[in-house]
């Protein structure tokens, strides 16, 4: 009979049926020690077979992507007990699918994100799982991240920092009483876990916790399309670079890729050679030819790959699932399958046409579709495109966003890609949910319009938002007030002492 505690302080509320029976282990072979004795478990079936646990912590963080990982670790460091709940079997969200953080630097090459985000990437580099941060004329900066390295470092950190983690646990229900979350329930593998906390932080990307709590949200009519990332090995990049040097039209924005200004590309092959942390956006001529020949399985104007940390390894960000709503399980399922099926056709076309890719092979397909945009929840403040373009840094700024406005069209191959003059500030109120008292949001589901999201959705900013939400939650708890009434100057002071950057460099 199993009665153990899964996590310290997590208690069982239900038990397996009693009466497991044991038989003698059969002798298999001398020196082999395997215990094959059968254990028959009397199974009550149905709801009574469900294992029920309950857990109570100061802070519950739901979703362990860049925002959630940062929030959970920071809240624990600030002295609070934390449970981090994640539906996948690994930590890191989109940071663990081969995407490199963009926008640690602003358009003039100055750091606009510090704190935990920068620390995490430095630790990754120390282990050889990142090639560090490089200036990029197109994306401000690229900081490479080995997908598997992210998972290993994240696991190491939650263990060493003492964050309690529940993996394979997807949020299934929320009880709201008197305008506050009383309990959230997660479900995984016939286990149901009731989670109680003083403050909850929604880091699910899609805002599932806020959604089930009844918070108001907005969603664009046409959402940015998701992508199934995949990894290619054995790419001869020098052969590709030589080809592109001889065919410079392969390194330009293609006319079909706008809504966007036709900025002459300042992107050069030398830059790729010089910086191992780079993102290649090119092959526009080849892609338009493939499209004309009916051999391009995806509505994309160019190949995008992110240079891996291992020789010949690239993470490909080129599948595209138009007209997808990732909050709808049928649409999500269709997109996962369609995206996966775009890969072999895309690889076949690239192998046949592009120098350097002749002998490449697919070594992995991301276990999760990468979702760029879904719900954005109403906070007590909202950050807008005007704030982004004017470089507005309000007094209650808790994170900066210095990346460009980068909005992929949900219905064709277009991308709205625009510079901002300087980083803008994200006000604390954009993290504070207006409809539920003890709920903060961090990451891409905060209170923002679609244009501001186009910048702040990058992972360094999401991590900075996670750090801000955790710091705010801690300060609110210490003062015995709700997040809405937390002292913003104390939050900012604490963030600065943790190395966060809250004011753009002059
Ligand atoms: C294809 C693609 C390319 C991108 N390119 C870049 C790039 O080059 N550089 C860059 O910096 N950014 C890039 N972005 C943007 C960036 O990756 C995301 O905006 C960012 O990861 C959002 O962080 P997050 O923590 O809010 O959400 P996510 O990274 O989505 O993490 C959310 C986490 O919550 C978990 N979760 C979700 N729902 C539940 C639930 N109900 N219960 C429990 N757990 C749940 C998820 O499994 C996941 O681990 C890209 C995004 C995509 C999709």
Q: Any ligands, ions or cofactors bound here, and which?
A: flavin-adenine dinucleotide
Radius of gyration: 24 Å
SS summary, helix count: 12
**Average pLDDT across residues?**
92
* C-alpha end-to-end distance: 65 Å
Task: Give the amount of beta strand, in percent.
Answer: 15-25%
Describe what this molecule looks like in 3D.
- There is one protein chain.
- With 506 residues, the chain is of the alpha+beta class.
- Among the domains are: 101-158 and 373-497, no CATH class; 230-365, no CATH class.
- Helices cover 27% and strands 21% of the residues.
- The chain is built from 12 helices and 23 strands.
- It has helices spanning 66-77, 115-126, 147-161, 208-212, 237-246, 269-274, 284-292, 329-353, 385-390, 450-456, 459-479, 488-497, and strands at 11-12, 21-22, 39-40, 51-62, 82-85, 133-136, 140-143, 164-166, 170-177, 180-188, 191-202, 217-218, 230-233, 279-282, 303-307, 314-316, 361-365, 376-377, 397-401, 405-408, 415-418, 424-427, 439-441.
- The strands form 7 sheets. Strands 1, 4, 5, 8, 9, 10, 11 and 23 form an 8-stranded mixed beta sheet that branches.
- A hairpin with a 2-residue loop joins β9 and β10.
- The radius of gyration is 24 Å and the shape is globular.
- Residues 1-5, 13-23 and 254-265 have low confidence and may be disordered.
- The structure holds flavin-adenine dinucleotide.
